[in-house]
Design goal:
Chains: A mainly beta, B alpha/beta, C mainly beta
Largest sheet of chain A: 5 strands, antiparallel
Structural class of chain C: mainly beta
Strand content of chain C: 35-45%
Order of helices and strands of chain A: EEHEEEEEEEEEE
Number of domains of chain A: 1
Largest sheet of chain C: 5 strands, antiparallel
Radius of gyration of chain C: 19 Å
Shape of chain A: globular
Oligomer: heterotrimer
Strand order of the largest sheet of chain C: 11-10-7-12-13
Strand content of chain A: 35-45%
Number of strands of chain C: 13
Strand order of the largest sheet of chain A: 10-9-8-11-12
Radius of gyration of chain A: 24 Å
Distance between the termini of chain C: 63 Å
Distance between the termini of chain A: 85 Å
Number of helices of chain A: 1
Chain lengths: 159, 383, 154
């Protein structure tokens, strides 16, 4: 059996990388009863719901089955929005992970809610936006039980 | 280091698909049951350790979304992902946190929702340079080891099938188990579809959705909260070399389990495991593995594992009942499976195992197994 | 009873891993010279195949290359009959296929690779096998297509 020493420095490796071909991974996440009910309300009623925590009394949006701060079950459903205030906005249009058009991302505090919802902001030039601006939900024509059943939030005067 | 005990446990009903809950809600189900069993609230918990294989569900940062379901808001939370040992390693990490004196009450929550994801692809993403070319999942890599083990130790497919039968019949008495088959026979196991020789479908563990949680309390608190705490007497981890071809006849030697058990037994003063351990919850992803673990854990001499299952030594009425819960063969939500072993061992010591309670348990053994032979060993006792 | 929804996401993922000096040299020898190299531990003298930077048992760096033949002995085997996703392609491999841990002559560890044979009755522990090489090699472990019985015609 032959053997040879490998020099430790200045050895140019002829093969530097190793490629693995793409694997396609599909995941199918159960929304659970609470999130399902919230999404179905978007799809069938064009209404947005939150749930109220019996301990801290905050209204959590999207609606969910427990308050993460109090670790208490939330069973009281409250309709919120469809308008609210713009709390934050991302200054550059961000590429979405779906086929939606490129729109800025914002955080919206819907009327009646104690948490903010992250969603797209549309129908206005970025320069016209102000924090605190009133916004209103625009629902998609075709809805399928997804957060994107709200297509985006648009500026709303006197709402 | 101070003493630590398990004072409460909780599990979900493990199933093929839990479509009624999100991952966060699944974790919360187990966490709230464990807190109730311990008689405490989330406010009493000082730290949380999570166990989950994020690659299987394709959801990064489980400490985030799912951590919230485990009660993690404004608490120190740490996640462990070490294949099948995730759950037992998380239980060992939680024990360290409590024993260190830094935290008095520690919650450990493990979960997996295989129905949502791509477990097989996750399993195939082993080291990219070598093993990934040929990797054939848990089934493939176990089948290789079994070909050596069966040849060397003489176990037969019938003996392996008896392990599978014992597991699913035991599971019929465990309301949380996924596969409950009170009438399963050796013939049914041997005539089920062959996955990779010699592993039949019914020799192999299922993929389950499920969660499990345990609560640790330090001495001083444990006795006040729990009438019969399950004290941690030993908690040992061993990992091995990473390439499948390095693992010198893995099931035959199983050096990580032997080494971990040797240290754990030494700590507790166990010299005759069959006599001194009252019940064992061991991590057996495939029927043959349980036989190999009997030998590695010193329940019998090498070559005697088949005799143990033939003679019913490890049955519910035997000298050392193994997996009265039904084991991994009856429920395998990977991130939870190791926590389930510790929870079930604790339940036996605490006298809370219901229909599958073994009488007069003072000392219980729990083990974890991961991918390429990593092993965890824990010993819990009533004193 | 609430209608229960599922949210689906499909991701297409690929990776590009930086290879190390031992991988580079191993693959160069495979590709350019049709040779298999292992690395020998200076302490325990074990020859590791595939090569890696350190001996896990002795905790020392490995620097000494050792020649390994393309013939060897089957130390473990199985025939996989259930579809398994091949991470190289993202598609399930066609079942059934033979797979083994093979101790190549000159190596102390075993190499996980395919067997051409998928008839279980023709496989046994200890059987002698040899590599079947690809005509055009590119520097991948599957420059060896699979292993056949040593006395086979392939």
């Amino acid at each position: 059996m032959t053997s040879r020493q490998l020099p430790i420095t200045n050895y140019p490796p002829p093969i530097t990388t190793h490629q693995t071909a793409g694997v396609n991974l599909t995941f199918s996440y159960a929304a659970g009863e609470a999130a399902s009910r919230f999404l179905i309300a978007l799809r069938d009623e064009k209404r947005i719901y939150g749930t109220r925590c019996p301990v801290c009394c905050r209204v959590l949006v999207p609606a969910r089955s427990f308050c993460p701060r109090c670790f208490a079950e939330t069973t009281e459903w409250i309709e919120v929005g469809p308008s609210g205030n713009l709390v934050a906005i991302a200054p550059m249009p961000l590429p979405p992970c779906s086929s939606s058009p490129l729109l800025p991302l914002g955080l919206i505090r819907l009327d009646g809610a104690d948490t903010s919802l992250a969603h797209f902001i549309g129908e206005a030039d970025f320069d016209a936006w102000r924090i605190g601006q009133r916004v209103s939900a625009v629902f998609a024509g075709t809805r399928r039980g997804s957060i994107l059943d709200i297509a985006y939030f648009k500026p709303a005067q006197g709402v | 280091m101070r003493r630590v005990a398990v004072i409460g446990t909780g599990q979900t009903k493990h199933a093929k698909a839990r479509d009624d809950v999100s991952q966060a809600e699944l974790a919360r189900e187990a966490a709230t049951r464990a807190l109730a069993d311990a008689g405490i609230t989330i406010r009493d918990v000082d730290a949380i350790v999570l166990s989950n294989m994020e690659l299987f569900e394709g959801r990064a940062l489980p400490e985030m979304w799912v951590g919230e379901g485990a009660g993690g808001w404004l608490k120190p939370v740490m996640k462990i992902a070490t294949g099948g040992t995730s759950g037992t390693s998380a239980c060992i990490a939680g024990y360290h946190q409590c024993a260190s004196g830094l935290f008095d009450i520690v919650l450990v929550v493990g979960w997996e929702k295989h129905s949502e994801g791509a477990t097989q692809t996750g399993m195939a993403l082993v080291d990219p340079l070598w093993d990934r070319n040929v990797a054939s999942g848990a089934v493939g890599n176990f089948a290789l080891s079994i070909s050596q083990y069966a040849a060397e130790r003489g176990v037969t497919p019938e003996q392996a099938a008896k392990v599978a039968v014992k597991a699913r019949r035991n599971a019929a008495k465990n309301p949380c188990a996924h596969l409950q088959m009170p009438d399963l026979t050796v013939e049914q196991v041997l005539s089920s579809r062959m996955l990779a020789d010699p592993i039949h479908l019914l020799d192999m563990c299922p993929q389950s959705d499920g969660a499990a949680a345990i609560v640790y309390a330090a001495e001083g608190r444990a006795e006040k909260l729990c009438p019969r705490p399950a004290w941690v007497r030993a908690a040992v981890t061993r990992h091995d070399q990473p390439t499948i071809g390095d693992l010198d006849r893995r099931l035959v030697t199983m050096r990580t389990l032997r080494d971990a058990a040797r240290e754990a037994y030494q700590r507790v003063g166990i010299t005759d495991p069959l006599k001194q351990i009252d019940v064992a919850e061991i991590y057996e992803p495939v029927s043959y593995a349980e036989l190999a673990w009997y030998e590695a854990l010193g329940f019998c001499a090498e070559g005697e594992a088949g005799r143990l299952i033939d003679e019913g030594v490890t049955g519910m009425d035997g000298e050392l009942p193994v997996n009265p819960s039904g084991g991994v063969l009856s429920a395998n939500p990977v991130g939870a499976s190791g926590v389930i072993r510790v929870a079930e061992a604790a339940m036996q010591v605490m006298g809370r195992a219901g229909a599958h309670q073994i009488p007069n348990v003072r000392t219980a053994l729990a083990t974890g197994y991961g991918v390429y032979a990593w092993s965890d060993v824990l010993i819990l006792s009533a004193d | 009873m609430t209608e229960l929804l599922h949210i689906s996401h499909t991701m297409s993922l690929s990776w590009r891993y930086g290879a190390s000096w031992y991988f580079a040299e191993f693959m160069r020898a495979l590709r350019d010279e049709r040779r298999i190299l292992g690395l020998r531990c200076p302490v325990c003298r074990r020859v590791y195949l595939p090569p890696r930077p350190a001996c896990g048992n002795c905790h020392v760096e490995l620097r000494e290359w050792a020649e390994v033949k393309d013939t060897g002995t089957v130390r473990a085997f199985t025939v996989v009959r259930t579809p398994i996703i091949d991470p190289a392609t993202g598609q399930p491999r066609p079942a059934s296929y033979g797979m083994a841990l093979i101790q190549l002559d000159g190596a102390d560890t075993t190499l996980n690779h395919y067997l051409a044979e998928n008839d279980l009755s023709k496989l046994r522990l200890g059987m002698r096998v040899r590599a079947v090489w690809r005509e055009e090699r590119v520097g991948r472990l599957n420059d060896i297509v699979h292993f056949v019985a040593e006395d086979s015609d392939q």
